[in-house]
Specification:
By secondary structure, this protein is of the alpha+beta class. It contains five helices and 16 strands. Strands 1, 2, 3, 4, 5, 6, 8, 9, 13 and 16 form a ten-stranded mixed β-sheet that branches. Strands 12-11-10-7-14-15 form a six-stranded antiparallel β-sheet, with no helix packed on it.
Amino acid sequence: MYIYIYDSFVNESKNHKIIASIETRLTDLGLNGKIYRLGVIKSITSLLDEEIKKGAKTIIGVGNDFLFSQIINSVIKISEDSSIVPIIGFIPIGKNNDIANYFGINLSNAHAVISARRVKSFPLGKVNNNYFLSNVKISTKKTIIDINDRYQISLNEKNEAFVINLPISPKMENIGLDYEKLKLFIKNNSSGYFSNKSQTDSLISFQTIKVFDSNNTALIDNNYYLKSPFEISQSSKKINIIIAKDKKIIE
Protein backbone atom coordinates (compact mmCIF):
# COMPACT_ATOMS: atom_id res chain seq x y z
CA MET A 1 0.00 0.00 0.00
CA TYR A 2 1.26 3.47 -0.94
CA ILE A 3 0.85 6.43 1.40
CA TYR A 4 1.39 9.90 -0.09
CA ILE A 5 2.18 12.81 2.24
CA TYR A 6 1.71 16.25 0.64
CA ASP A 7 3.48 19.19 2.23
CA SER A 8 1.22 22.17 2.93
CA PHE A 9 2.70 24.39 0.19
CA VAL A 10 1.96 21.71 -2.43
CA ASN A 11 -1.73 22.56 -2.13
CA GLU A 12 -1.20 26.13 -3.36
CA SER A 13 -3.10 26.97 -6.54
CA LYS A 14 0.09 27.37 -8.60
CA ASN A 15 0.81 23.66 -8.06
CA HIS A 16 -2.64 22.31 -8.98
CA LYS A 17 -1.79 21.43 -12.60
CA ILE A 18 1.50 19.83 -11.58
CA ILE A 19 -0.20 17.67 -8.95
CA ALA A 20 -3.01 16.68 -11.31
CA SER A 21 -0.45 15.54 -13.89
CA ILE A 22 1.55 13.58 -11.30
CA GLU A 23 -1.55 11.85 -9.94
CA THR A 24 -2.66 10.86 -13.44
CA ARG A 25 0.71 9.28 -14.20
CA LEU A 26 0.78 7.45 -10.87
CA THR A 27 -2.72 6.09 -11.46
CA ASP A 28 -1.76 4.92 -14.97
CA LEU A 29 1.16 3.00 -13.42
CA GLY A 30 -1.04 1.46 -10.74
CA LEU A 31 0.71 3.42 -7.99
CA ASN A 32 -2.27 5.22 -6.54
CA GLY A 33 -2.83 5.11 -2.79
CA LYS A 34 -3.98 7.13 0.22
CA ILE A 35 -3.24 10.86 0.12
CA TYR A 36 -2.73 12.96 3.24
CA ARG A 37 -2.22 16.72 3.15
CA LEU A 38 -0.27 18.49 5.90
CA GLY A 39 -2.22 21.19 7.66
CA VAL A 40 -5.19 18.88 8.07
CA ILE A 41 -3.65 15.85 9.76
CA LYS A 42 -2.54 15.92 13.40
CA SER A 43 1.10 14.97 12.90
CA ILE A 44 3.23 12.98 10.49
CA THR A 45 4.45 10.59 13.20
CA SER A 46 1.01 9.69 14.55
CA LEU A 47 -0.39 9.36 11.03
CA LEU A 48 2.41 7.07 9.85
CA ASP A 49 2.25 5.04 13.05
CA GLU A 50 -1.39 4.24 12.34
CA GLU A 51 -0.81 3.50 8.65
CA ILE A 52 2.23 1.30 9.25
CA LYS A 53 0.23 -0.73 11.76
CA LYS A 54 -2.39 -1.18 9.03
CA GLY A 55 0.24 -2.53 6.66
CA ALA A 56 1.61 0.49 4.77
CA LYS A 57 4.97 -0.48 3.27
CA THR A 58 5.81 2.54 1.08
CA ILE A 59 5.71 6.20 2.13
CA ILE A 60 6.01 8.81 -0.62
CA GLY A 61 6.80 12.40 0.34
CA VAL A 62 5.50 15.07 -2.04
CA GLY A 63 7.39 18.26 -1.23
CA ASN A 64 10.98 19.25 -0.45
CA ASP A 65 13.88 18.38 1.86
CA PHE A 66 12.07 19.61 4.97
CA LEU A 67 9.21 17.15 4.48
CA PHE A 68 11.55 14.29 3.70
CA SER A 69 13.53 14.91 6.89
CA GLN A 70 10.29 14.80 8.88
CA ILE A 71 9.26 11.54 7.24
CA ILE A 72 12.68 9.95 7.81
CA ASN A 73 12.65 10.82 11.51
CA SER A 74 9.06 9.63 11.92
CA VAL A 75 9.64 6.31 10.15
CA ILE A 76 12.81 5.54 12.15
CA LYS A 77 11.26 6.43 15.51
CA ILE A 78 8.19 4.31 14.73
CA SER A 79 10.36 1.38 13.63
CA GLU A 80 12.13 1.34 17.01
CA ASP A 81 9.10 -0.53 18.31
CA SER A 82 8.43 -2.50 15.14
CA SER A 83 10.25 -4.92 12.88
CA ILE A 84 8.77 -3.15 9.83
CA VAL A 85 10.77 -0.31 8.27
CA PRO A 86 8.76 1.15 5.36
CA ILE A 87 10.39 2.22 2.12
CA ILE A 88 10.53 5.96 1.43
CA GLY A 89 10.10 7.58 -1.98
CA PHE A 90 10.22 11.21 -3.17
CA ILE A 91 8.27 13.43 -5.52
CA PRO A 92 10.21 16.71 -5.30
CA ILE A 93 8.30 19.97 -5.72
CA GLY A 94 9.46 23.55 -5.20
CA LYS A 95 12.86 24.66 -3.96
CA ASN A 96 15.39 23.00 -1.63
CA ASN A 97 15.44 19.50 -3.07
CA ASP A 98 19.07 18.49 -2.54
CA ILE A 99 18.06 15.08 -1.16
CA ALA A 100 15.96 14.09 -4.19
CA ASN A 101 18.59 15.49 -6.56
CA TYR A 102 21.30 13.41 -4.89
CA PHE A 103 19.27 10.25 -5.52
CA GLY A 104 18.66 11.18 -9.16
CA ILE A 105 15.01 12.13 -8.70
CA ASN A 106 13.26 15.13 -10.24
CA LEU A 107 9.70 16.14 -10.92
CA SER A 108 9.65 14.69 -14.44
CA ASN A 109 11.01 11.23 -13.59
CA ALA A 110 9.66 10.71 -10.05
CA HIS A 111 6.71 8.51 -11.12
CA ALA A 112 9.02 6.28 -13.19
CA VAL A 113 11.51 6.02 -10.30
CA ILE A 114 8.75 4.95 -7.91
CA SER A 115 7.47 2.41 -10.44
CA ALA A 116 10.95 0.93 -11.05
CA ARG A 117 11.37 0.61 -7.28
CA ARG A 118 15.14 0.41 -6.99
CA VAL A 119 15.59 0.39 -3.21
CA LYS A 120 18.84 1.05 -1.35
CA SER A 121 19.54 1.21 2.38
CA PHE A 122 21.44 4.18 3.79
CA PRO A 123 22.88 4.74 7.26
CA LEU A 124 21.73 7.66 9.37
CA GLY A 125 23.50 9.99 11.73
CA LYS A 126 22.05 10.87 15.12
CA VAL A 127 21.95 14.15 17.05
CA ASN A 128 20.67 13.48 20.56
CA ASN A 129 17.33 11.78 19.78
CA ASN A 130 17.03 13.12 16.22
CA TYR A 131 18.22 11.49 13.01
CA PHE A 132 19.75 13.02 9.90
CA LEU A 133 20.47 11.74 6.42
CA SER A 134 22.78 14.39 4.99
CA ASN A 135 24.60 16.72 7.37
CA VAL A 136 24.61 18.84 10.50
CA LYS A 137 25.96 22.38 10.39
CA ILE A 138 27.50 23.43 13.71
CA SER A 139 27.73 27.03 14.81
CA THR A 140 31.37 28.12 15.02
CA LYS A 141 31.03 31.04 17.45
CA LYS A 142 33.58 30.26 20.19
CA THR A 143 32.85 26.57 19.78
CA ILE A 144 34.79 23.71 21.35
CA ILE A 145 34.16 20.22 19.98
CA ASP A 146 35.08 17.07 21.88
CA ILE A 147 36.04 14.28 19.46
CA ASN A 148 35.72 10.62 20.50
CA ASP A 149 36.29 11.65 24.15
CA ARG A 150 39.99 11.84 23.25
CA TYR A 151 40.77 15.43 22.27
CA GLN A 152 39.14 18.80 21.62
CA ILE A 153 39.32 21.35 18.84
CA SER A 154 38.32 25.02 18.89
CA LEU A 155 36.47 26.79 16.09
CA ASN A 156 36.08 30.46 15.33
CA GLU A 157 33.63 32.59 13.36
CA LYS A 158 35.75 32.40 10.20
CA ASN A 159 35.18 28.65 10.00
CA GLU A 160 32.23 26.62 8.73
CA ALA A 161 31.75 23.21 10.34
CA PHE A 162 29.64 20.33 9.04
CA VAL A 163 29.15 16.78 10.20
CA ILE A 164 28.58 14.74 7.04
CA ASN A 165 26.74 11.46 6.75
CA LEU A 166 25.93 11.57 3.02
CA PRO A 167 27.55 14.33 0.89
CA ILE A 168 24.18 15.44 -0.49
CA SER A 169 24.77 19.19 -0.59
CA PRO A 170 26.48 20.41 -3.82
CA LYS A 171 29.23 22.08 -1.72
CA MET A 172 30.16 18.63 -0.35
CA GLU A 173 30.17 16.71 -3.62
CA ASN A 174 33.96 16.16 -3.51
CA ILE A 175 33.85 14.54 -0.08
CA GLY A 176 33.97 10.76 -0.21
CA LEU A 177 31.24 8.49 1.12
CA ASP A 178 32.02 6.40 4.21
CA TYR A 179 29.35 4.09 5.62
CA GLU A 180 31.40 3.29 8.71
CA LYS A 181 32.11 6.75 10.16
CA LEU A 182 30.78 10.27 10.10
CA LYS A 183 33.07 13.07 8.95
CA LEU A 184 33.66 16.49 10.45
CA PHE A 185 34.37 18.96 7.64
CA ILE A 186 35.85 22.30 8.74
CA LYS A 187 36.06 24.90 6.01
CA ASN A 188 38.55 27.69 6.57
CA ASN A 189 37.14 31.00 5.32
CA SER A 190 39.99 33.22 6.51
CA SER A 191 40.83 35.94 4.03
CA GLY A 192 42.54 39.28 3.89
CA TYR A 193 46.09 40.60 4.15
CA PHE A 194 46.69 39.33 7.68
CA SER A 195 45.11 35.89 7.24
CA ASN A 196 47.14 32.74 7.62
CA LYS A 197 47.38 31.44 4.06
CA SER A 198 48.78 28.13 5.31
CA GLN A 199 45.44 27.21 6.90
CA THR A 200 43.42 24.72 4.84
CA ASP A 201 40.14 22.89 5.12
CA SER A 202 40.07 19.89 7.47
CA LEU A 203 38.28 16.55 7.26
CA ILE A 204 38.15 14.36 10.39
CA SER A 205 36.52 10.92 10.64
CA PHE A 206 34.99 10.16 14.03
CA GLN A 207 32.62 7.98 16.03
CA THR A 208 31.19 10.61 18.40
CA ILE A 209 31.51 14.35 18.90
CA LYS A 210 30.07 16.47 21.70
CA VAL A 211 29.34 20.20 21.98
CA PHE A 212 28.57 21.53 25.45
CA ASP A 213 28.40 25.31 24.94
CA SER A 214 24.84 26.33 25.84
CA ASN A 215 24.87 29.11 23.21
CA ASN A 216 25.58 26.76 20.34
CA THR A 217 23.16 25.43 17.71
CA ALA A 218 23.09 22.65 15.14
CA LEU A 219 21.23 22.93 11.82
CA ILE A 220 19.92 19.47 10.93
CA ASP A 221 19.75 18.55 7.22
CA ASN A 222 19.48 22.28 6.47
CA ASN A 223 15.94 22.24 7.86
CA TYR A 224 15.62 22.69 11.62
CA TYR A 225 17.77 23.73 14.58
CA LEU A 226 18.70 22.06 17.84
CA LYS A 227 20.32 23.83 20.79
CA SER A 228 23.32 22.41 22.60
CA PRO A 229 24.40 20.49 24.48
CA PHE A 230 24.31 17.84 21.79
CA GLU A 231 26.06 14.64 20.86
CA ILE A 232 26.45 13.51 17.26
CA SER A 233 27.18 9.91 16.33
CA GLN A 234 26.65 7.26 13.67
CA SER A 235 23.31 5.53 14.20
CA SER A 236 22.79 1.80 13.85
CA LYS A 237 19.53 2.62 12.04
CA LYS A 238 19.23 2.53 8.27
CA ILE A 239 16.56 3.94 5.99
CA ASN A 240 15.29 2.31 2.79
CA ILE A 241 14.97 4.78 -0.08
CA ILE A 242 13.75 4.45 -3.67
CA ILE A 243 16.42 5.95 -5.93
CA ALA A 244 16.82 6.42 -9.68
CA LYS A 245 18.00 3.37 -11.66
CA ASP A 246 20.93 5.28 -13.14
CA LYS A 247 22.12 6.73 -9.83
CA LYS A 248 25.56 5.33 -8.98
CA ILE A 249 25.88 4.45 -5.32
CA ILE A 250 28.95 3.06 -3.58
CA GLU A 251 28.05 -0.34 -2.15
